[in-house]
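Quick illustration, no need to memorize.
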Amino acid sequence: QVQLVESGGGLVQAGGSLRLSCAASGSILISRNVMGWYRRAPGKQRELVARITSDGTTDYADSVKGRFTISRDNAKNTVTLQMNSLKPEDTAVYYCNSAYIYWGQGTQVTVSS
C-alpha cells in the first residue's frame, strides 16, 4: 500500500514563501518514479504545478517558473516544493502525486493580497 502525506501548507501574504513536503511510504520509491505536485483552485480543474522524473528532470507550469522549485530526497523518500514570491492566484489545495497513480490528501495554501 502506498501512502503520500503532504505537509507545510498554510496562510501567507503575497510575496512570501512556503515549503511543501510529501513523505512517501509503502511499496514505492520516489527515486524510481515520477513525482509531481498538482493544485486545484476554487472553481478550477486540477493542474500540474511541477514534477520531477527518476533521472532528476524537472518540469514546471509556466505560471510558477522561476518561483517554485521541486526537489527530491531519496534517502528520506520525500519530495519538496519550495514556493517563493507567492501570489494570491497560487491559492489552492496542493496535492502530491506519485507515478500518476497515487495521491496524497492535499494541503491548503492560501495567499492573501
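The two ends are 40 Å apart (CA to CA).
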